[in-house]
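Regression test case RT-17, inverse folding.

Input:
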């Protein structure tokens, strides 16, 4: 009898998946099976229905749903910030996001893959921001200050201490991380070279050295300054570099 009920329930479930608009949002503690009007017989089953679609105890989860993937990455990033790299595991992340560990591992094959994607996505996000600023229709000095602020936010989000721990724990990540970081700095270099081409900067300015200077000061501020003052400190540093710190000699 139980087998018959299970088969009927599975048939109803498949029909509802393909014919009804069942939400893919994961809501812990609200069994979707009751919302879909299905019987208890299939509630504790875990059955692959179609590619990337699994039925679990609390509902239907599409593992290629981008909004769910982004939410998992966001929570993973929060774990890294609050607990470091070693202070959490995939089971804790699964509980935090309201899904089973099995589903989480179907999205990300390992904790290493998840952390790699979090790091690479973060770098790509700021690279795209720098390129968007570069093409904005505003004065170059205004754009330059905005790039400096974004540079500070990038360094703040990509905590060097956490990155160092990640690369020590997962050395296989380093090559892709370095490539992404180089692309980010290349975008900044292109923007600064534009400053030379429009004669905003002196022609003998070493762009690579300029980036290293800002990187060093940013890391210093991140380590010693109050978080709320980092952006303003870097703006002031940029102002000192651009305008100098020596008064113009008075003419008589």
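Golden output:
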């Amino acid at each position: 009898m139980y087998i018959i009920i299970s088969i009927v329930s599975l048939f109803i479930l498949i029909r509802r998946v393909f014919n009804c608009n069942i939400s893919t949002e994961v809501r812990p503690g609200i069994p979707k099976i009751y919302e879909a009007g299905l019987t208890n017989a299939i509630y504790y089953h875990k059955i692959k229905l179609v590619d990337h679609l699994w039925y679990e105890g609390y509902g239907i989860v599409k593992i290629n749903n981008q909004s769910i993937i982004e939410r998992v990455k966001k929570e993973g990033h929060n774990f890294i910030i609050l607990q470091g790299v070693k202070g959490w595991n995939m089971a804790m992340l699964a509980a935090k996001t309201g899904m089973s560990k099995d589903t989480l591992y179907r999205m990300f094959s390992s904790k290493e893959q998840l952390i790699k994607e979090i790091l690479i996505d973060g770098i790509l996000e700021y690279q795209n921001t720098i390129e968007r600023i570069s093409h904005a229709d505003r004065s170059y000095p205004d754009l330059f200050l905005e790039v400096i602020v974004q540079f500070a936010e990038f360094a703040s989000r990509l905590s060097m201490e956490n990155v160092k721990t990640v690369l020590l724990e997962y050395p296989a990540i380093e090559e892709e991380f370095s490539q992404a970081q180089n692309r980010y700095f290349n975008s900044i270099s292109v923007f600064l070279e534009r400053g030379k081409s429009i004669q905003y900067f002196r022609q003998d300015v070493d762009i690579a050295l300029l980036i290293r200077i800002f990187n060093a000061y940013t890391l210093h501020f991140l380590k010693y300054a109050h978080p709320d003052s980092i952006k303003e400190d870097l703006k002031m540093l940029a102002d000192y570099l651009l305008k100098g710190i020596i008064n113009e000699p008075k003419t008589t």
